[in-house]
């Protein structure tokens, strides 16, 4: 449905339809894309999750999801298609579809990422680069993850120490037979993981200085003992104060998982 509507938008622009008609179609596309983002996040076991995504245009190239697989395991995914706007949004719909197909076949995590890479590589869209982190978390705190060329998520312990989740492989799309490895971590009570797209850490001030990883880590450390919804809200506030461009120059997505 998203593919169909976004293609209509492109057709409408090319055929120079009336502006109000294009605006109406764009709004349809925005609502459909919003529908693939979860409206309500689950609260599995003693984990709490919060997320937010802000598009740079009427549709965006960022994606996140939380999928409860069974009573013991849930998946978290964040993805970022190169660029923003229509081409990126179309590629995001491929990620969404590919994930659902892989999970319906009960693929292992690394096989799911390989399958997504194949789908993106075969795409006829101009945007053939998608970064992604897919993680599988059990209620005992074991985290199995694969990072495909994405900004490294922050795993922060209750004492403020940080580990970056970088195990995986290349960005999805360019290499058809790319191989991917998995990383394993464990979350104890009070630990949290922050996943984000590069629109967050690369948000720039008027002098072109980027918000950067160190500022983000410092912000997470100061917010460590707050609840995930508050952490998400405050980080967006910090980034917006640093880089007051509205809408942002690039799509911005943030996911916070706390045990």
Class from helix and strand fractions:
alpha+beta
- What is the chain-wise order of helices and strands? HHEEEHHEEEEEEEHHHE
Distance between the termini: 36 Å
Q: Tell me the overall shape.
A: globular
Please state the CA-atom Rg, rounded to the nearest Å.
18 Å
Low-confidence stretches: none
Helix content: 25-40%
Query: Percent of residues in beta strands?
Result: 15-25%
Number of helices: 7
Tally the beta strands.
11
Main β-sheet: number of strands, strand sense, barrel status? 6 strands, mixed
Key attributes of the depicted protein:
single chain, 259 residues, alpha+beta, 5-stranded antiparallel β-sheet, globular
Q: If you had to describe this structure to a student in words, what would you say it looks like?
A:
The model has no long low-confidence stretch (mean pLDDT 87). This protein starts with a helix and ends with a strand. A hairpin with a 4-residue loop joins strand 2 and strand 3. The protein contains seven helices and eleven strands. It is globular, with a radius of gyration of 18 Å. Strands 2, 3, 4, 5, 8 and 9 form a six-stranded mixed sheet that branches. The protein is of the alpha+beta class and 259 residues long. The longest helix is centred in the middle third of the chain and has 19 residues. Helix 1 packs antiparallel against helix 2 and helix 1 runs antiparallel to helix 3. 36% of the residues lie in helices and 24% in strands.
């Amino acid at each position: 449905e998203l593919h169909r509507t976004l293609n209509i938008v492109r057709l409408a622009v090319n055929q120079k339809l009336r502006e109000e008609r294009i605006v109406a179609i764009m709004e349809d596309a925005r609502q459909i894309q919003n529908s693939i983002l979860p409206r309500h996040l689950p609260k599995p076991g003693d984990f709490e999750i919060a997320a937010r995504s802000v598009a740079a245009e009427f549709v965006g190239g960022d994606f996140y999801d939380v999928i409860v697989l069974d009573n013991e395991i849930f998946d978290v995914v964040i993805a970022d298609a190169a660029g923003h706007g229509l081409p990126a949004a179309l590629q995001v719909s491929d990620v969404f579809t590919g994930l659902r197909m892989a999970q319906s076949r009960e693929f292992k995590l690394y096989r799911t990422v390989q399958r997504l890479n194949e789908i993106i590589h075969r795409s006829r869209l101009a945007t053939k680069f998608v970064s992604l982190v897919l993680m599988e978390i059990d209620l005992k705190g074991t985290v199995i993850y694969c990072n495909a060329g994405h900004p490294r998520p922050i795993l922060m312990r209750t004492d403020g120490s940080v580990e970056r989740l970088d195990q995986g492989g290349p960005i999805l799309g360019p290499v058809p037979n790319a191989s991917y490895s998995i990383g394993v971590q464990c979350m104890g009570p009070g630990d949290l993981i922050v996943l984000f797209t590069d629109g967050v850490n690369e948000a720039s001030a008027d002098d072109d200085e980027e918000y950067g990883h160190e500022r983000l880590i410092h912000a997470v450390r100061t917010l460590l003992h707050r609840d995930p919804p508050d952490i998400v809200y405050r980080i967006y506030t910090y980034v917006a104060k640093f880089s007051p461009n509205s809408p942002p120059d690039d799509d911005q997505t943030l996911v916070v998982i706390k045990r």
